[in-house]
Amino acid sequence: MTGAFLGLLRRDLRLSLRQGGDVGLVIGFFVLAVLLFPFGVGPEPELLGRIAAGIIWVAALLAAVLSLDRLFAADHADGGLDLIALSAMPLELAVLAKAAAHWLTTGLPLTLISPLLAVLVDLDAAAIPVLMLGLLLGTPALSLFGAIAAALTLGARRPGVLVSLLVLPLYLPPLIFGAGAVEATLTADGGRAHLLLLGALTLAALPLAPLATAAALRQALD
Amino acid sequence: MSASVAASIAIDDELVGEDLACRRGERLVFAGLDCRLAAGGALLLTGSNGSGKSSLLRLLATLLTPAAGQLWWAGAPVAADRTRYRAMIDYVGHLDATKAALTARETLGFWAALRGTARPDIDAALDRFGLGAVADWPCRWLSAGQRRRLALARLVAAPAPVWLLDEPTAALDSDGEVRLVAAIADHRAGGGRVALATHQPIALPGAVPIVLDDFAASPGDALATLW
Fold first, then answer.
1. Rounded to an integer, what distance in angstroms lies between the CA atom of residue A146 and that of residue A163?
2. What is the C-alpha to C-alpha distance for residues B115 and B90, in angstroms, rounded to an integer?
3. Do A84 and B96 touch (CB under 8 A)?
4. Which H/E stretch holds residue A128?
């Protein structure tokens, strides 16, 4: 069963990397979205620095949504989802493997380049470790919640738009605690409580999201 | 295994569909369908477009839940332990489940690993369907017929007692069809069984024919008016 899990994870990673662009597109979107803000709100360092964490988190959410509609749609369209459902591995585990692959190709690279963007939008250097830790703890929840929406919209006519409408409300808690952690660090309250809550969100999503997603997938296959 | 043991297994592990009905959306596709598939046996599903051949195969594969009736495997209801039953079936639907960016070898290796097949002989399976020369080509370079062969090679790479094949000869050339017929004959000779839906004549000696049109639900059917 571990073999099947790792096999699916490895295949999805290989597909994203080989179909080039996939990872690059998400990162490119993330960088551009963040860079739009200095042009929109003006380049004053104080103003930008204060909203920097919010900008980066919002851009990360949107970048994560961007790639969600492909999470199950490709396998659904080519019949692969039938075979995954028929495999010895529980569907919940297959969902977990696909969500993990999604995180490794979106959440993780976004986390890794976030310090660079933080500098571009004048975030206080002292807050960068907290921003990164927050993204590291929170982005898995984005992939897991996203899987639910991606499964629910299988077979819909405009899945991309529908996924965003479904999933963005679910992304509010990670956004609040993620941006809040940075804010709290800068005001000397310490971001510990926010980071713990982010971790709790991901831990709660880890078993619950695959259950909900698998139920939605079964519905889509029937 | 002695002949008598083999015979007793053959009786015990029959796949039986009892009074099956299938509903797609609000339409009752077929109803009152009985079928039996013993070791070495074959079912040949025919019928007009939309008569429910694919639906019956998906139902036998547990991908659809019957609107009425029940599936039995080895004397026990399939619904009671679907995981055990699913390990017994190989389903090749009308979609090929290939990815443009993966090679034929990678595709087959992945699906065999997902079935939990220990040490699958990928090369032998590819050769069996004449894909040895294109094993390391990405699937985007393969023709429709070659992708079909690759889907069928799953049957050999990850063997299971029950093969459920939906239009397996679609897009296949005559060589491909010969290879498929040979693979099915070998499978049945080894006690395997096959349910196959097709529009084209195919050599399937001793197959039990099921004409899906015979089970089309009349509009006045109790189930049909339920929804």
1. 8
2. 9
3. no
4. helix A128-152
CB A122 within 8 A of CB A56: no
Tell which residue, A147, A145, A153, A148, has the closest CA to residue A172: A145
Joined tokens for residue B29: 């596709």
Chain A residues with beta carbon closer than 8 angstroms to that of B61: 82, 86
ipTM of the modeled complex: 0.87
Do residue B95 and residue A7 have CB atoms under 8 angstroms apart? no
Determine the distance in angstroms separating the CA of A74 from the nearest CA of chain B, rounded to an integer.
9
> Are B86 and A86 a contacting pair, CB within 8 Å?
yes
Neighbours of B195 (CB within 10 A): 28
DSSP B81: -
Amino acid at A82: D
Shortest CA distance to B12 belongs to which of B76, B75, B81, B79? Answer: B75
CA distance A19 to chain B (A): 7
Please, are residues A53 and A127 in contact by the beta-carbon 8 Å criterion? yes
**Do B91 and A3 make contact, defined as CB atoms within 8 angstroms?**
no
* Tens digit of each residue's pLDDT (9 = 90 or more) over B13-25: 789 999 999 988 8
Q: Is B164 helix (H, G, I), strand (E, B) or coil?
A: strand
CB pairs under 8 A between A and B: 73
Contact A91/A218 with Cβ under 8 angstroms?
yes
Cβ distance A199 to A137 under 8 Å? yes
Residues 6-25 of A with CB under 8 A from B: 7-8, 11, 14-15, 18-19
Q: Decide: helix, strand or coil at residue B221.
A: coil
> Please, which pLDDT band fits residue B222 given cuts at 50, 70 and 90?
low
